[in-house]
Amino acid sequence: MSGFSDQEIDRAHRYHRPRYVALVIDLIVSVAVLAALTQLSLPLVAAPPVVALGISAGGLPVAWWRYRHDVTWGFATESPGAWALDRAKEMLINAGLLLLALAPLFLLARYYPHGWAWPAATGAALLVFLLGFLAPVVLEPVFNTFQPLDDAALSQRLHGLAERAGAPVRDILVADASRRTTKTNAYVSGIGRTRRVVLWDTLLATPQDQVAVVLAHELGHRVRRHIAALTALTMAGAAGFVLVLHALRPHPVPRDTAFILLLAIAGQLAVLPAASALLRRFERAADRFSLELTGDREAYEALHHDLAITNLSDLRPPKWLYYWMFSHPTPPERLSDA
Fold first, then answer.
1. Which segments of the chain are extended strands (E)?
2. Triad 217, 219, 220: Cα angle to 5°
3. At 1, is the pLDDT very low, low, confident or very high (cuts 50, 70, 90)?
4. Can you tell me whether residue 134 is helix, strand or coil?
5. Segments making up each domain of the chain, as ranges
6. What DSSP character marks residue 78?
7. ∠ at Cα 85 (84, 91), nearest 5°?
8. CB atoms closer than 10 angstroms to residue 320
9. Backbone angles phi, psi at 112, to 5 degrees
Protein backbone atom coordinates (compact mmCIF):
# COMPACT_ATOMS: atom_id res chain seq x y z
CA MET A 1 0.00 0.00 0.00
CA SER A 2 1.59 3.25 -1.18
CA GLY A 3 3.27 5.31 1.52
CA PHE A 4 2.59 3.00 4.47
CA SER A 5 4.42 0.01 5.87
CA ASP A 6 2.87 -3.32 6.79
CA GLN A 7 3.54 -2.49 10.45
CA GLU A 8 1.60 0.79 10.18
CA ILE A 9 -1.31 -0.95 8.48
CA ASP A 10 -1.37 -3.66 11.16
CA ARG A 11 -1.18 -1.14 14.00
CA ALA A 12 -4.17 0.77 12.62
CA HIS A 13 -6.01 -2.53 12.22
CA ARG A 14 -5.45 -3.44 15.89
CA TYR A 15 -6.65 -0.03 17.06
CA HIS A 16 -9.79 0.17 14.96
CA ARG A 17 -11.24 -3.34 14.91
CA PRO A 18 -12.35 -3.31 18.57
CA ARG A 19 -13.83 0.16 17.97
CA TYR A 20 -15.99 -1.23 15.18
CA VAL A 21 -17.27 -3.95 17.51
CA ALA A 22 -18.05 -1.23 20.06
CA LEU A 23 -19.93 0.70 17.37
CA VAL A 24 -22.23 -2.26 16.71
CA ILE A 25 -22.73 -2.88 20.44
CA ASP A 26 -23.56 0.79 20.95
CA LEU A 27 -26.20 0.62 18.22
CA ILE A 28 -27.75 -2.55 19.68
CA VAL A 29 -27.84 -1.05 23.18
CA SER A 30 -29.43 2.17 21.89
CA VAL A 31 -32.16 0.27 20.08
CA ALA A 32 -32.79 -1.97 23.12
CA VAL A 33 -33.02 1.01 25.50
CA LEU A 34 -35.39 2.87 23.19
CA ALA A 35 -37.52 -0.23 22.71
CA ALA A 36 -37.87 -0.49 26.49
CA LEU A 37 -38.67 3.21 26.79
CA THR A 38 -41.53 2.96 24.29
CA GLN A 39 -43.55 1.57 27.19
CA LEU A 40 -42.89 4.67 29.29
CA SER A 41 -45.68 7.22 29.66
CA LEU A 42 -44.59 10.69 30.81
CA PRO A 43 -45.96 14.23 30.55
CA LEU A 44 -44.86 16.52 27.72
CA VAL A 45 -42.03 18.36 29.45
CA ALA A 46 -40.54 15.23 31.02
CA ALA A 47 -40.73 12.71 28.17
CA PRO A 48 -38.01 14.00 25.78
CA PRO A 49 -35.39 14.70 28.50
CA VAL A 50 -36.03 11.38 30.27
CA VAL A 51 -35.71 9.41 27.03
CA ALA A 52 -32.59 11.37 26.01
CA LEU A 53 -30.97 10.77 29.40
CA GLY A 54 -31.98 7.10 29.28
CA ILE A 55 -30.34 6.46 25.92
CA SER A 56 -27.24 8.43 26.95
CA ALA A 57 -26.94 6.47 30.19
CA GLY A 58 -27.33 3.21 28.28
CA GLY A 59 -24.39 4.16 26.09
CA LEU A 60 -22.05 5.11 28.95
CA PRO A 61 -20.37 1.67 29.31
CA VAL A 62 -19.34 1.66 25.64
CA ALA A 63 -18.31 5.32 25.85
CA TRP A 64 -16.15 4.50 28.89
CA TRP A 65 -14.58 1.60 27.02
CA ARG A 66 -13.72 3.92 24.09
CA TYR A 67 -12.11 6.36 26.50
CA ARG A 68 -10.02 3.64 28.17
CA HIS A 69 -9.09 2.24 24.76
CA ASP A 70 -7.77 5.66 23.71
CA VAL A 71 -5.91 5.99 27.02
CA THR A 72 -4.23 2.65 26.35
CA TRP A 73 -3.22 3.75 22.86
CA GLY A 74 -1.89 7.09 24.08
CA PHE A 75 -4.56 9.33 22.53
CA ALA A 76 -6.81 10.38 25.43
CA THR A 77 -5.24 13.04 27.66
CA GLU A 78 -8.09 14.03 29.98
CA SER A 79 -8.58 12.56 33.44
CA PRO A 80 -11.51 10.24 34.21
CA GLY A 81 -13.15 13.12 36.11
CA ALA A 82 -12.84 15.46 33.13
CA TRP A 83 -14.18 12.73 30.85
CA ALA A 84 -17.18 12.24 33.16
CA LEU A 85 -17.84 16.00 33.20
CA ASP A 86 -17.83 16.11 29.40
CA ARG A 87 -20.29 13.21 29.25
CA ALA A 88 -22.56 14.96 31.78
CA LYS A 89 -22.53 18.13 29.68
CA GLU A 90 -23.28 16.08 26.57
CA MET A 91 -26.20 14.33 28.24
CA LEU A 92 -27.76 17.58 29.44
CA ILE A 93 -27.36 19.21 26.02
CA ASN A 94 -28.90 16.20 24.28
CA ALA A 95 -31.83 16.28 26.69
CA GLY A 96 -32.37 19.99 26.11
CA LEU A 97 -32.12 19.70 22.33
CA LEU A 98 -34.58 16.81 22.21
CA LEU A 99 -37.04 18.81 24.31
CA LEU A 100 -36.55 21.79 22.00
CA ALA A 101 -37.23 19.63 18.96
CA LEU A 102 -40.18 17.57 20.20
CA ALA A 103 -42.13 19.78 22.59
CA PRO A 104 -43.35 22.10 19.77
CA LEU A 105 -44.20 19.06 17.65
CA PHE A 106 -46.35 17.53 20.40
CA LEU A 107 -48.06 20.85 21.07
CA LEU A 108 -48.85 21.32 17.37
CA ALA A 109 -50.22 17.77 17.19
CA ARG A 110 -52.40 18.42 20.25
CA TYR A 111 -53.89 21.75 19.16
CA TYR A 112 -53.91 21.18 15.37
CA PRO A 113 -54.54 17.43 15.13
CA HIS A 114 -55.32 17.49 11.40
CA GLY A 115 -52.84 20.09 10.20
CA TRP A 116 -49.73 19.84 12.37
CA ALA A 117 -47.43 18.07 9.92
CA TRP A 118 -46.57 20.91 7.54
CA PRO A 119 -45.82 23.59 10.18
CA ALA A 120 -43.87 20.98 12.15
CA ALA A 121 -41.86 20.05 9.04
CA THR A 122 -41.11 23.71 8.40
CA GLY A 123 -40.12 24.17 12.03
CA ALA A 124 -37.81 21.13 11.90
CA ALA A 125 -36.00 22.54 8.86
CA LEU A 126 -35.65 25.96 10.53
CA LEU A 127 -34.36 24.33 13.71
CA VAL A 128 -31.59 22.63 11.72
CA PHE A 129 -30.60 26.00 10.27
CA LEU A 130 -30.76 27.71 13.67
CA LEU A 131 -28.56 25.07 15.30
CA GLY A 132 -26.04 25.34 12.48
CA PHE A 133 -25.93 29.10 13.04
CA LEU A 134 -25.75 29.02 16.83
CA ALA A 135 -23.65 25.90 17.50
CA PRO A 136 -20.25 27.63 17.13
CA VAL A 137 -21.11 30.33 19.66
CA VAL A 138 -23.44 28.43 22.01
CA LEU A 139 -22.60 24.70 21.97
CA GLU A 140 -18.94 24.38 20.95
CA PRO A 141 -17.67 26.64 23.80
CA VAL A 142 -19.23 24.23 26.30
CA PHE A 143 -16.53 21.69 25.45
CA ASN A 144 -13.58 23.79 24.27
CA THR A 145 -11.97 27.16 24.74
CA PHE A 146 -11.27 29.09 21.54
CA GLN A 147 -8.58 31.70 21.06
CA PRO A 148 -7.48 33.65 17.98
CA LEU A 149 -4.41 32.22 16.28
CA ASP A 150 -1.58 34.10 17.98
CA ASP A 151 1.23 33.17 15.57
CA ALA A 152 1.31 36.43 13.58
CA ALA A 153 3.32 35.05 10.67
CA LEU A 154 1.13 31.96 10.31
CA SER A 155 -2.04 34.02 10.71
CA GLN A 156 -0.96 36.43 8.00
CA ARG A 157 -0.10 33.55 5.70
CA LEU A 158 -3.42 31.80 6.25
CA HIS A 159 -5.47 34.97 5.81
CA GLY A 160 -3.56 35.66 2.61
CA LEU A 161 -4.35 32.16 1.39
CA ALA A 162 -8.04 32.73 2.11
CA GLU A 163 -7.95 36.00 0.15
CA ARG A 164 -6.39 34.21 -2.81
CA ALA A 165 -9.11 31.59 -2.63
CA GLY A 166 -11.77 34.31 -2.85
CA ALA A 167 -13.11 33.23 0.55
CA PRO A 168 -11.74 35.62 3.19
CA VAL A 169 -12.34 34.47 6.75
CA ARG A 170 -13.04 36.69 9.71
CA ASP A 171 -11.76 34.33 12.37
CA ILE A 172 -9.11 31.63 12.46
CA LEU A 173 -9.46 30.18 15.93
CA VAL A 174 -7.49 27.62 17.90
CA ALA A 175 -9.34 25.11 20.09
CA ASP A 176 -7.70 23.63 23.19
CA ALA A 177 -8.19 20.07 21.94
CA SER A 178 -4.94 18.94 23.59
CA ARG A 179 -6.71 18.83 26.96
CA ARG A 180 -8.68 15.91 25.56
CA THR A 181 -6.60 14.18 22.86
CA THR A 182 -3.27 14.01 21.04
CA LYS A 183 -5.03 13.66 17.69
CA THR A 184 -5.12 16.58 15.26
CA ASN A 185 -7.95 18.10 13.27
CA ALA A 186 -9.41 21.28 11.77
CA TYR A 187 -12.90 22.20 10.64
CA VAL A 188 -15.23 24.91 9.42
CA SER A 189 -18.39 25.57 11.43
CA GLY A 190 -21.20 28.07 11.51
CA ILE A 191 -23.38 29.81 8.95
CA GLY A 192 -23.07 33.41 7.80
CA ARG A 193 -21.81 35.66 10.59
CA THR A 194 -20.92 32.71 12.84
CA ARG A 195 -18.81 30.92 10.23
CA ARG A 196 -15.21 30.38 11.29
CA VAL A 197 -12.21 28.13 10.72
CA VAL A 198 -11.04 26.19 13.77
CA LEU A 199 -7.62 24.59 14.14
CA TRP A 200 -6.96 22.18 16.97
CA ASP A 201 -3.96 23.30 19.00
CA THR A 202 -2.43 19.87 18.40
CA LEU A 203 -2.15 20.84 14.72
CA LEU A 204 0.10 23.83 15.40
CA ALA A 205 3.20 21.64 15.79
CA THR A 206 2.73 20.72 12.13
CA PRO A 207 4.99 22.56 9.62
CA GLN A 208 3.39 25.75 8.33
CA ASP A 209 3.33 24.51 4.74
CA GLN A 210 1.14 21.63 5.87
CA VAL A 211 -1.11 23.85 8.00
CA ALA A 212 -1.62 25.94 4.84
CA VAL A 213 -2.81 22.79 3.04
CA VAL A 214 -5.23 22.10 5.91
CA LEU A 215 -6.70 25.59 5.66
CA ALA A 216 -6.89 25.34 1.85
CA HIS A 217 -8.86 22.11 2.27
CA GLU A 218 -11.33 23.78 4.63
CA LEU A 219 -11.61 26.76 2.29
CA GLY A 220 -12.40 24.29 -0.47
CA HIS A 221 -15.52 23.22 1.40
CA ARG A 222 -16.60 26.85 1.55
CA VAL A 223 -15.73 27.80 -2.03
CA ARG A 224 -17.40 24.67 -3.42
CA ARG A 225 -20.45 25.40 -1.21
CA HIS A 226 -20.34 22.02 0.50
CA ILE A 227 -21.52 23.42 3.84
CA ALA A 228 -24.48 25.15 2.19
CA ALA A 229 -25.40 21.97 0.31
CA LEU A 230 -25.19 19.81 3.44
CA THR A 231 -27.24 22.32 5.43
CA ALA A 232 -29.94 22.35 2.74
CA LEU A 233 -29.98 18.54 2.54
CA THR A 234 -30.18 18.21 6.32
CA MET A 235 -33.03 20.72 6.46
CA ALA A 236 -34.87 18.78 3.75
CA GLY A 237 -34.19 15.53 5.60
CA ALA A 238 -35.58 16.92 8.85
CA ALA A 239 -38.74 18.11 7.09
CA GLY A 240 -39.11 14.78 5.30
CA PHE A 241 -38.70 12.91 8.57
CA VAL A 242 -41.64 14.81 10.09
CA LEU A 243 -43.81 13.84 7.11
CA VAL A 244 -42.82 10.18 7.48
CA LEU A 245 -43.64 10.41 11.19
CA HIS A 246 -47.06 11.84 10.31
CA ALA A 247 -47.73 8.84 8.08
CA LEU A 248 -46.82 6.41 10.86
CA ARG A 249 -48.13 8.39 13.84
CA PRO A 250 -50.90 10.76 12.68
CA HIS A 251 -51.37 12.01 16.26
CA PRO A 252 -48.02 11.82 18.10
CA VAL A 253 -47.98 12.23 21.87
CA PRO A 254 -45.11 12.44 24.40
CA ARG A 255 -45.27 8.68 24.92
CA ASP A 256 -44.07 8.35 21.29
CA THR A 257 -40.71 9.98 22.05
CA ALA A 258 -38.75 6.72 22.09
CA PHE A 259 -40.52 5.53 18.95
CA ILE A 260 -39.57 8.77 17.19
CA LEU A 261 -35.91 8.22 18.07
CA LEU A 262 -36.09 4.62 16.87
CA LEU A 263 -37.53 5.89 13.61
CA ALA A 264 -34.70 8.45 13.40
CA ILE A 265 -32.09 5.71 13.87
CA ALA A 266 -33.72 3.61 11.15
CA GLY A 267 -33.78 6.60 8.83
CA GLN A 268 -30.14 7.42 9.50
CA LEU A 269 -29.06 3.85 8.84
CA ALA A 270 -31.02 3.85 5.58
CA VAL A 271 -29.52 7.07 4.20
CA LEU A 272 -26.02 6.66 5.66
CA PRO A 273 -24.43 4.93 2.63
CA ALA A 274 -25.60 7.68 0.25
CA ALA A 275 -24.68 10.42 2.71
CA SER A 276 -21.23 8.92 3.30
CA ALA A 277 -20.60 8.65 -0.44
CA LEU A 278 -21.54 12.31 -0.87
CA LEU A 279 -19.28 13.37 2.01
CA ARG A 280 -16.35 11.40 0.59
CA ARG A 281 -16.93 13.12 -2.74
CA PHE A 282 -16.88 16.51 -1.03
CA GLU A 283 -13.68 15.61 0.82
CA ARG A 284 -11.89 14.63 -2.37
CA ALA A 285 -13.08 17.82 -4.06
CA ALA A 286 -11.69 19.82 -1.13
CA ASP A 287 -8.42 17.88 -1.38
CA ARG A 288 -8.12 18.79 -5.06
CA PHE A 289 -8.88 22.41 -4.22
CA SER A 290 -6.12 22.45 -1.59
CA LEU A 291 -3.64 21.16 -4.16
CA GLU A 292 -4.72 23.73 -6.74
CA LEU A 293 -4.64 26.62 -4.27
CA THR A 294 -1.29 25.87 -2.62
CA GLY A 295 0.45 24.18 -5.54
CA ASP A 296 2.45 22.30 -2.90
CA ARG A 297 2.22 18.61 -3.68
CA GLU A 298 5.06 17.74 -1.31
CA ALA A 299 3.32 19.40 1.65
CA TYR A 300 0.02 17.75 0.68
CA GLU A 301 1.58 14.27 0.64
CA ALA A 302 3.50 14.85 3.88
CA LEU A 303 0.38 16.18 5.60
CA HIS A 304 -1.88 13.25 4.77
CA HIS A 305 0.81 10.71 5.54
CA ASP A 306 1.65 12.31 8.90
CA LEU A 307 -2.03 12.82 9.84
CA ALA A 308 -2.71 9.15 9.14
CA ILE A 309 0.10 8.14 11.49
CA THR A 310 -0.68 10.73 14.18
CA ASN A 311 -4.42 9.98 14.23
CA LEU A 312 -3.90 6.27 13.50
CA SER A 313 -6.41 6.36 10.64
CA ASP A 314 -7.67 3.03 9.38
CA LEU A 315 -5.62 2.38 6.25
CA ARG A 316 -7.57 -0.68 5.15
CA PRO A 317 -11.11 -0.60 6.64
CA PRO A 318 -13.65 -3.36 5.96
CA LYS A 319 -15.26 -2.56 2.62
CA TRP A 320 -18.83 -2.91 3.90
CA LEU A 321 -18.12 -0.47 6.71
CA TYR A 322 -16.26 1.93 4.43
CA TYR A 323 -19.18 2.20 2.01
CA TRP A 324 -21.73 2.32 4.81
CA MET A 325 -20.33 5.01 7.09
CA PHE A 326 -16.90 6.42 6.18
CA SER A 327 -17.27 10.16 5.59
CA HIS A 328 -13.63 10.59 4.48
CA PRO A 329 -11.49 8.78 1.92
CA THR A 330 -8.75 6.58 3.35
CA PRO A 331 -5.26 8.12 3.52
CA PRO A 332 -4.01 5.93 0.63
CA GLU A 333 -6.90 7.23 -1.49
CA ARG A 334 -6.04 10.81 -0.62
CA LEU A 335 -2.40 10.26 -1.47
CA SER A 336 -3.34 8.67 -4.79
CA ASP A 337 -5.05 11.95 -5.74
CA ALA A 338 -1.79 13.90 -5.38
1. 146-148, 172-175, 186-189, 196-200
2. 65
3. very low
4. helix
5. 6-336
6. S
7. 90
8. 9
9. -130, 65
